[in-house]
Amino acid sequence: MVAFFTLLVIARAIAKEPPCTNILLILDASQSMIARWEKQSKIDISRRLLIKLIDSLERIPNLNLALRVYGHQKPVPPQDCSDTRLEVAFGNDNLQAIRNVIRELRPKGTTPIARSLEEAADDFPDDNCRRFIILFTDGIEACDGDPCEVSYRLQRKGVILEPFVIGIGLDRGFRKSFECVGKFYEVINETRFQEVLDVVITQILNTTSAQINLLDSYGRPTETNVNMTFYDAKTGAVRYNYFHTLNYRDNPDTLFLDPGYTYNLKIHTFPPLFLNDIKLQPGRHNVFAINAAMGYLFVKQPPQILTGPVKVIVKDKTTGSVINVQNTGERIRYLIGDYRVEILTMPVITIDSVNIRQSHTTTIEYPQPGIANFITNSEGEGNLFYYGPNGPENIHVFPENMRFHTLTLQPGKYMALFRPIGKQETMEVIKREFIITPGETSRVLLY
Hints:
This protein is an alpha/beta fold.
C-alpha cells in the first residue's frame, strides 16, 4: 500500500496543477549494495521502495522522471570509474522502463559519484521545467572526483537545484562527505527510508517556498544560525522546525512550506522573536523579514576559581524576566539592547545595564575571589553577612552540622555569626569579622 503521506502529496499536487518538474534518480548499484541490511540486501530494499515511489508518482501531472545508474556495468576488480550511464531518459510513458531497469539491476562495480553528477547535467532536456536530482548511495566517492565541487559548480551555473542525497545504511562517519553535495538524509532502516522518500518528494512537489530574512542593524539579511519553529496559527501544533542558514550565495536558504496553513513563527534567539499570522501565496516564493540584529556576551572567568564555571543569569532589563542562563567562559549571542546581568558569585554581582551591540562581543570581567575556611568545634547554626553599600546583607546560611565549611567569596568585608548548639544567650553567639583578599585563603575560627 502506498504510504498515506505520499497519497496526500499526490492529491495536493493534482489539485494545484504544479509546474513542469523533472526528477533524475541516480541509483547506486555498486558491489556494496549486495550487503545485507535488516532482512534483505540494500539493493532489494531500494528496488522495492523505489518502484513503490514510482507507482505513487505515476498520476502526477507535469512530472517527468529519468534514471541514471552507476556501478552496474563492470565488476571490481579492476575499478572502472566510467561505470555510470543514463539508463532511462526523460520522456513520455517511460515509467515502466524505469521499473524494468530497477528490477533487473545486479550490483557489480565501483562508486563514481562525482562523474555521475557531472554527466547528469546533460541528462535533463532543454526546457523550462524545474530540475531535481535524488542521489541514492551506500558509500562515498571511490574514484578521483570531488562530488562537492561538481555539485557546487552545477548549482552555481543554475544547471540543477541543490541535490537530495539519501544515504542508505551509510557509516555515520561519512555524513560530512555528503552534506556539501546537497540536502543529506540519513537512512538507518527501511522505515526511515520510506519516511525520507516522502519528505523529499513533498519538498519537490510543493512549489510554495519561503525565506526568512533576519535583518541586522543595517537592514541586511545577514543574521543566521538560529532555530525556527513554524506553528499552525489555529491549533498551535508544530508544523516545521528549521535551522536558519545562508546558502552559498549568502542568501537565506529556501524553505518549502504547505500553503494551506496560516503560521505563527518563533525564532529561537535570546530573547525569542515572533512573527504571527504568516500567510503564504501558493506557487510563489514568499519573503518575510524581521529585525534580528545580534551581538555577543562573554563573562570572563577570573583565574583560580576552584568551583569551576559560575552561572550567569541574563534578564530583561525592564521586566526582570529570565532570558537565558549561561556559564562564565561562554560566548553567547543575544539580540542587541540592554540587559540586566547577575553573576552568581557570593555575593551575587548584579549589573543593571549591559549593552549588546551588533556583531560586537561585550565582555564582563569581575574580581578574582578568595577562599574562606570556617572551622567550628560543635554543631550549631549561623549566617554569613557581606558588608555592602547599604550595610550587612545575609548571603549564606551555614549547615547545622558544620564543623569545616569552605566558601568561595568575592573580595570585601564579611561577618560570620554562629550560635553553638545548646547556647541560648545572645552574648554566647560567636561573631567574627574578616576580609577576603583576591586569590588568598582566610581561616575563620567559630569557637
